[in-house]
Sequence to fold (359 residues):
Amino acid sequence: MKNIVNKNVLKIKPYEPGKPIEEVERELGLKNVIKLASNENPLGSSLRALSAIKKKLGTLNRYPDGNCFYLKNKLAKKLGLKPQNLIFGNGSDELIDVVIKTFVGPDEEVLTSKVSFVEYEIVSRSNNRKFRDIPLKNFKYDLRAIKMAIGKNTKAIFIANPNNPTGTYVNKKELEDFLRGLPKNIIVVLDEAYNEFVDVKDFPKGLNYINKNVILLRTFSKTYGLAGLRIGYAIARPEFIECMNRVRQPFNVNLLAQAAALEAIDDIAFLGRTRKITLDGKKYLYRELDRLGFPYVSSVANFILIDLKQDCRIVFNKLLKEGVIVRPMGTYNLKNFIRVTIGTKKENTRFINSLRRIL
Ligand SMILES: Cc1ncc(COP(=O)(O)O)c(C=O)c1O
Fold:
């Protein structure tokens, strides 16, 4: 393999997705398994989005609109932007790839934090770009250390805000201090996959920075409940978007995803319910974890990083047998931690009861 496969690909640790419900039910002979492992929306999807999908089923013989015309115009209006500020992708995952291909040359480097979204590393390495990550400080991105680490080849800096898997965030002041005086050729990517869950006042409004070299990434996978359809978007200066459009696949966003997103954007009631259930669930989980004596990292997203003070693999397997799928954090060198997505009230209660039983 050594001489056949690209050596950078051999360096990649494969992405470990949350275990699918069907797989656990099949392997363990269980029913009613719940998944709190991939930060998905526990309420399902907007009914308006689902009915829009049904209406489009008869047109699947056609290619989708490669320009996402209606979606782009609607979202631009909603955000107070020009359609030229937007590009859509097959999930924001695809746009991470597009950003790296568009802005980072073969000898240049992507910089980010350790214990952050693993796709930044996977995509950098598979595109033969250099990659470096800087340790967290108190479970937060250490923007000062990242700025100090900028080298002559550094070209793009990825900041997941809020960060996955810690749930922490960089605040407005920290971000502005970081952006001040950055070398002019560097792109800063603010990945805002979880921004709709944020409940703190000092969270920076990413849109205020796009006239600098900032690119925002957002997704329909979380609050909008459309993870299975794969659709996300980036917001940036039109000149940047124009170059990114050269790199993406011509029909990267499928027809059903476009139709669903077009409706989901307007389903304010669904978004409101999702936010409420998440914030209520977070309060409940904090209270119960305090009672059980398990420390956790304060989160502004729809998941919580929990310190179980014992090998997370063992707890993970025991929880699986209880029919509860969570995410073990061993691959991040957080051997005693799990990440739990905030679910419905029933799911959260089941997780806590299972935890109480097995520990
Ligand atoms: C920080 C972060 N960015 C991007 C993504 C990818 O989202 P999408 O489903 O839009 O590809 C995720 C998904 O978990 C994420 O946690």
Observations:
- Residues 290 and 296 are 9 Å apart (CA to CA).
- The first strand starts at residue 34 and ends at 35.
- The mean pLDDT is 96.
- The chain has two domains: 7-44+268-358, 47-264.
